[in-house]
Amino acid sequence: MKHFLLLLTALVLSLSSIAQNNADRYILDVKLNSARPRPAKLYLAYQVDGRKIMDSATYRPDQRHYRFTGISADPTYATLVADHHNFGLPNLIKATMAGSKIDLLKFYLHAGHITLIATDSISKGHFMGSAINTDELELQARLRSITDQEWHWSMRLRTDTARKDIQLGRAKLDSLQAMRRPILKAFYEQHLNSYVGLMALTEYVGNSPKKAVIQPLFDRLSSSVRNTRSGRMYQKLMDDLITLKTGVQAPLFTQNDTAGRPVSLASFKGKYVLLDFWASWCGPCRQQNPQLVKVYNEFSKRNFAILGISLDGADGRAAWLKAIRTDGLNWTHLSDLKHWDNEVAHLYSVRAIPQNFLIGPDGVIIGHDLAPDQLRNKLQELLPLK
Q1: pLDDT for 365-381, tens place per residue?
Q2: Half-sphere exposure of 296 toward its Cβ, with a 13 Å CA cutoff?
């Protein structure tokens, strides 16, 4: 009887899993009414739990479309790329990195049947049966003139070497970022029932929102939007604005180091510790690493340690280790290789990197988002030379 109950339980769990997977299943059909030869392939790329998912599809003459299928329990931002000349995805990525524009579309995968209809170019397509993507394309259209300029200046920064040109490029990107905010706010106010309205709101308020300001705006969103996974995570962020502020106890955690050994924050008790959230792929993180190394070398023998938390993904382990060596980051490094789903990043509501928390010997947070020069000044006060 016991074995029967175990088998029955296993069967019920298995059937529940199948039912859930079926409920979360997506079908993406791309109908390209092209006047020229159809693309050799379409590529679909997105991430789940830090893993990069890559899929491809060829044209199906019998159905007159390209088809992708898979599982998406929550709306997942994805990129669709058309390979018009059979270059292959690696070469298309290289072309993009070199500054060439390719035919691509950013959109949301979600459970259900999604149909994209386009003529010649997928980047100019429109969706049927997908309200979230209709909203996303509307937001992209409102921001297009700004995003085109951002792309132009980003490409210039890749090649400019003169200090004044770099400063000009960064200043221009900052001004373009500021121009996005009123557009994002207006879109949010007009789309309170849309998941994309939530995404517009989160970008509008930035990385360091004030709970008193953002909570009333968040509460205006429909309950269905607030109760999505992203909505619940954003509510946690707002709650953490109080629980993770300076003067409160830092949440404890354990995560594996580069050798796969578990390391706990509690083991650093008695030291000043900087939790440094970064990733090998994060340009601003890598740019500030030389200054962070100087601070570490100056104070590491004065009861100061750095604990690096990497937001690299499952396929980024080699890049993570290489970045540690290349940048000379001679301190303890941890990661679960889940990209933005890193459990410590969730615990500390990290939504952008670089980001850091300075923790005192008693485990209390005494600083947040300190630039290397600010960190040095703080440590000079706390750990003066005797």
Answers
A1: 999 889 899 999 999 99
A2: 20
- Residue 314, φ and ψ in degrees, nearest 5: -60, -30
Task: Give the number of other CB atoms < 10 A from CB of residue 324.
Answer: 18
Please give the single-letter amino acid code of residue 176. Answer: L
DSSP 60: B
Residues with Cβ within 8 Å of 274's Cβ and at least 6 positions away in sequence, in order, are 304, 305, 306, 307, 356, 357, 358, 359, 370, 375
Q: What are phi and psi of 65, to 5 degrees?
A: -160, 170
In the three-class reduction of DSSP (H, G, I as helix; E, B as strand; rest coil), residue 12 is classed as helix
Mean pLDDT of 330-355: 91
Establish whether the linkage from the previous residue to 354 is cis, with ω within 30° of 0. Answer: yes
Q: Please state the length of the chain.
A: 386
Q: What average pLDDT is seen over the chain? A: 87
Q: CA-CA distance, 283 to 158, in Å (whole number)? A: 11
pTM here? 0.71
* Cβ atoms < 10 Å from Cβ of 151: 12
Q: What is the mean pLDDT of residues 106-129?
A: 92
Residues 329, 280 contacting (CB under 8 angstroms): no
DSSP label at 335?
A: -
Question: What H or E segment, with its residue span, contains residue 245?
Answer: none
Q: CA-to-CA distance for 255 and 346, rounded, in angstroms?
A: 13
Let me know: does 105 contact 60? Beta carbons within 8 Å.
no
